[in-house]
Amino acid sequence: MNAPAESPVAAPGIALADYNHPSSLIYGIGNVGRQDDGLGWAFIDWLESESLCPQGEILRHYQLHLEDADLISRKQRVLFVDATKEADVEQFRLERVEPKMDFSFTSHAISIPAIMATCEQCFEYLPEVHLLTIRGYEWELREGLTSMAVRNLKAAIAYIAEISVLNETTRSYL
Known about the structure:
4 helices; globular; alpha/beta
């Protein structure tokens, strides 16, 4: 299965097996009480229900915090999973993230690139970071994902599962 053409995938080498190690972190961002904002946590729920990556660190938080720079400074590899409202993301997007100091820091918002830049600045270290964003549609104070968000979550899961299998098969031949 290929990722939908509308959903750029710029991280073809990612495999879940790479995150099944204590030096790895999978970080779900969101809020299940705000409909599709719960997509990051739903991805984490899937990992846990399938007993995937049990040796890696798996977290859920409502939002990123400046202290996350310290957290990722102790990891080799990090996968952030979050919902997005961006119209240019048809279903999901998987991409490698680069550090960038920006002005997103407030008490309620800081970007992943800013967390990475802070990590690099403060700890002189930068892990490999990927971001899986999944398109959401509704953000009201209500529990439960919309049917379209569930469709996008399933597409993202299917893609991650398929490339993980392909990467494992390729590794076995090397």
